[in-house]
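Pair request: fold both.
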Amino acid sequence: MSEDKPILYNDSMELISITNEEIINNIADINSSNIAIFRMNIENILVTIPIDRIEQFLGDSLSEEIIFYIEKNWEQKVIKFYEINKASAPGKPKIMKPPGVMDPVEKYGNTNEMIKNFQMMSIEKREEVLDKSIESLHEVQSKKTALDIHSIVKMVDIIANTFYTNYANLEDNLSSENIKNNLSGIFVKTGWVMKMIIEFFKNNGTAYESYSEIDRISTGSYTIDNINKGLLWFIGFSLFYNDYIDQGLVSKKIRGEFRDKYSRYYRKRMNESMTSIERIIKGGIKKIDIAKDLPVYAVGALLYDIGKIPFIGYHDSDESYDVNMVKMHVLVGYNMILKTKKYQFPIAAMAAFHHEYYGGKGSYNFTNPILSKLNQKKRTDDKAQYFITYDEKEFRDGLALAFFPCKIIEIIDVYNALIHHKKNSHFDAMKIVKKNFITQSLKVDPIIFDLFLDFKQKCGLISIQERKDIDSIIY
């Protein structure tokens, strides 16, 4: 290894260069010890390479031109890892998880204890928790922190505290009418937290390759992990979506390919007139208003699975599939949010309708019953002229089958389940979505799926060839 001068990463970690050969010879130890490998991206910013993709980078034809970096004391960390394992169980070696960057947030995976702690807090104490989260985000902004594993850990700390604070308040609201006047502070400060997380992503610009760090979140609870990942992927994808529009790619790619690539799927659900983007999305594809709409959508992405918490024992276990138990989380979450009368419609809608799948096979089919009760008049799909609308009233009145933010969180939820619950690779997960959720039965939206696929490719999670293979799945 070269004895070049160490470089400082994130103001705390010294990195040194490491050759391809050294990585290859020590790949097993590096992976087992959860040691990060870094490289410079095209913007000359240090980014980590996901552990499960190191070998792919080494196999790249351009890898000889890439300078890789690693922690200066990585060899000592490997030795310590094996010493811990050796001492863990004499006579019968037991693999133990080495100390890692996620250790500080594992407490949030102990849901029963966290729920109890937050329920015992006063309203004022819960607001103080959010105040501290806001202070942490101000610190992140002032330091112009990069999107890396350390900032992701900080985000998990902030998101989990914000989530548990909201859950405690929503639970209190269900059991006591006296709390209604005390919801405003938590609601307003939750909105501030979302705006500041959005700003953090905006400040990191198009450093999409760093987003892969989101998938390393691990608290010990699948549900809490999913809540954190869902929110961060939602915000990241929303900003990518806007950037995609700004670059004029809607006209260059989607509009030009619409008839040949997309219309066949939409015709399965509606008639032959589905021949343009404007007939799919009312008004066409347009940017998300970052100041007005995205903070509200982000709260929805934070709380969309909140209905799982009362049944966390089932959702975090390997128990056999219980369709009634699974569907219950949608209704519970929706009712918790709706009853506050503080949270905007998109937040309740994202909780209620993230499994609707255009009413196709596997859909919960709750859209019409829920909205009919909410509107106090029958709502059907009979007068639907569009697949998606950005407008709440048009969705509630049945002019469109789906509400825009619900279709975004829907695909992120499917993605997270396939990657983290079913343990598929990114490539296999995307193939499953294309085959089972689009070609065989129209569930997720084909255009949004393609944009999400572009996003994952930009994040370095899908290769060019894998993208071609997914695109080739037509029937």
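--- second member of the pair ---
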Amino acid sequence: MTTAADFKPQHFKWEVQGKVATITLNRPERKNPLTFESYAELRDTFRALTYADDVKTVVVTGAGGNFCSGGDVHEIIGPLTKMKMPGLLEFTRMTGDMVKAMRACPQPIVAAIDGICAGAGAMIACGSDLRYGTARSKVAFLFVRVGLAGADMGACTLLPRIIGQGRAAELLYTGRSMDGIEAERFGFYNAIHEPEEVLGAAQDMARTLADGPTFAHGMTKKLLHQEWNMGLDEAIEAEAEAQAICMQTQDFHRAYHAFANKQKPVFEGD
């Protein structure tokens, strides 16, 4: 069994308070860019979270007033220009695997975004379940600016489902940035907060979710992901099966007895 104490990442900060883990990208002098190593460690961390029963929700943020500036120009972009196809494909699959691991882990992920949120950083935001930002933040899908397709790390699937096809197409074709006001208006952000409050708001939401029926939250996240490829009849059947499973949990019974006694239920995730 994996526990929160088993996580000792080398390339980002890992802090746990109660049932909430906070991942902080921590290279503030460079606006928190990713490296080959941090990509892989994030991927492995989210994969391992599937087995960490004591972590119920995850917050992702960046240090020093920025979220993440994407792949490090010197440590990633430069070396990529010298690689042959097998190495390039190994890298692009690894970055996509990080997003797949975020979507596959049962814990809801809440992103707290300030400052620059670009390229791979914007895809970490897309891979999260909820996003809280600031008015001054800048979100940009920069791939086109370096001569690449906007189709990267699941962008052409995730972004349209968050903000709509037309808006996603414009951002992916142009690589332009959107500020926090526009990001909230588009539905990319669930809410915007002051810079000094955004992390706290994300952690408050994470604690609220962690105190809820976390087995059921995991089921909701799983179905939100799986139903993308289902027709309505198939989706309704999947939800019927999921709900029947949740009706066997102790949390469901706790909620009923609390309601019957005019009390607030205390969920334990089992």
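Observation on the second member. Residues 14 and 236 are 38 Å apart (CA to CA).
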